[in-house]
Specification:
The protein is an alpha+beta fold. The chain has one domain. It is 20% helix and 32% strand. It is built from five helices and ten strands. Strands 1, 2, 3, 4, 5, 6, 7, 8, 9 and 10 form a ten-stranded mixed sheet that branches. Helix 1 links the parallel strand 1 and strand 2. Helix 4 packs antiparallel against helix 5. It is globular and about 50 Å long. The protein starts with a strand and ends with a strand.
Length: 246
């Protein structure tokens, strides 16, 4: 079975956050560029996550279509057309938040129509960004299903956390997971991004603290609080009729 891979994008600038000239964010490594071959190789060497046994679980990372993007431009222009055809007339971020009844968010954008199990069959794979405090931005992956002109959320997990610069509000990713979906819609995988994984985030946080300004203490505490929540999302999820579960 083929697995379709997506990355949690962490490049949204938030001018509304304001700026403080002369202050810089702690040096947290930026997301490395990764080729499809490198992604496939690293995933193929990783042990299978524990999950619900299924005959479809024989899919390998080498069968994955790698779909990494550089910004918030929708990866598939057809997602808006699909939503329109399902009765969702407005696909702006503000409308998606309202139609899905989502909590306060900085931005929501849907990238692709992806397969999910029966009886639903298809859903929009989207990303939601929201702030934790002033200078920490969290990204979650979620699946939205159109119903009667509105949107129903069938799955959501935190996928990334980053710090906003006090100079220009640009984001420095700190921990990031990617999502891939088996092409029959029965399995979903949340896996680490090289260089932004879960194994050494405490080491990177310690290094950031050494160079941090006193006023950044609360921001680093927020990173320390959110990073474990993101890492808890890692693993394999199986379709259970109405949502994906462990």
């Amino acid at each position: 079975m083929m697995r379709i891979a997506f990355t949690a994008l962490m490049m949204l600038s938030l001018s509304s956050c304001g700026s403080h000239p002369g202050q810089t964010a702690p040096q947290i490594p930026a997301r490395p560029e990764a080729s499809a071959a490198a992604a496939s190789s690293s995933q193929a060497d990783r042990p299978e996550q524990i999950g619900t046994p299924t005959a479809a679980s024989s899919a390998t990372a080498g069968d994955r279509v790698d779909m990494r993007h550089a910004d918030w431009t929708a990866a598939d222009e057809g997602v808006d057309g699909w939503l329109h055809a399902k009765g969702v007339e407005d696909t702006s971020s503000e409308a998606l938040i309202k139609l899905a009844g989502l909590p306060e968010s900085v931005r929501v954008e849907c990238d692709r129509v992806v397969p999910v199990g029966k009886p639903i069959g298809q859903a929009a794979l989207c990303r939601r960004q929201y702030k934790d405090g002033v200078w920490v931005l969290v990204t979650s992956f979620l699946l939205l299903v159109p119903e009667g002109g509105r949107l129903r959320k069938v799955w959501e997990v935190p996928a990334a956390v980053g710090q906003l610069s006090r100079v220009d509000a640009a984001e420095a990713p700190f921990v990031q997971l990617n999502v891939s979906i088996q092409d029959d819609g029965m399995l979903l995988f949340m896996e680490e991004t090289e260089g932004l994984g879960c194994g050494d985030w405490r080491v990177r946080l310690k290094a950031a603290r050494q160079d941090a300004e006193p006023e950044e203490a609360d921001t680093l505490k927020a990173l320390e609080r959110v990073a474990p929540r993101v890492c808890q999302s890692k693993g394999r999820y199986a379709w259970r009729g109405t949502t994906f579960g462990r």
